[in-house]
Amino acid sequence: MRFTDHCLRSEGADVILATSSDEKYPPENIIDGRSETFWTTTGMFPQEFIICFHKCVTISKITIQCYLVQTLRIEKTASKDPVDFEQCVEKELQYKEGELQREEFSFPEIQATNLRFIILAGYDAFVSVHRVIAEGIAQVF
């Protein structure tokens, strides 16, 4: 059994929705596999983005690398369309000046076709998301 990072453009992932857009820091940066690039919000909360896998995947761990994110909620759906999301976790993230936040969430293998990340609050008016990693195995229908 091979574990994969499903949140990579090279694995077929897409960011199908983002509530903010800055052409210098597009949401696609979240799934390029690099921590140096990022998506930035343009103020006000909540902010959200949805990553679509285009197939059902099994996820056992989600890692997010971000900056200035205070409260984060992660939701999932196994529906073909990005609807009927269920909450997986909501957490207040710790912040250290000048350091990228890295938060890991382990699950007893959730099934998902889409993940929605909702940034409910930030430590500043603008926050950034550098990378999302969803470890697991692909399901075949």
Describe this structure in words.
The protein has strands at 4-5, 14-18, 39-40, 47-67, 69-77, 86-92, 101-122, 128-138. With 141 residues, it is mostly beta strands. It has a single domain (4-138), classed as Sandwich (Jelly Rolls), CATH 2.60.120.260. Strands 1, 2, 3, 4, 5, 6, 7 and 8 form an 8-stranded antiparallel beta sheet that branches. Strand 5 and strand 6 (86-92) form a beta hairpin. The mean pLDDT is 93.
Q: Whole-number radius of gyration?
A: 14 Å
What CATH architecture label applies?
Sandwich
CATH homolog superfamily:
Galactose-binding domain-like
What is the helical fraction, as a range of percent? under 10%
Provide a count of the helices.
Answer: 0
* C-alpha geometry: globular
Describe the largest sheet: 8 strands, antiparallel
Query: What is the number of independent domains?
Result: 1
Low-confidence stretches: none
Terminal CA distance: 17 Å
Average of per-residue pLDDT values: 93
Q: Strand percentage, roughly? A: over 45%
CATH topology: Jelly Rolls
Name the helix and strand elements from N-terminus to C-terminus, one letter apiece: EEEEEEEE
- Strand segment tally: 8
| Helix and strand composition category | mainly beta
CATH class, named: Mainly Beta
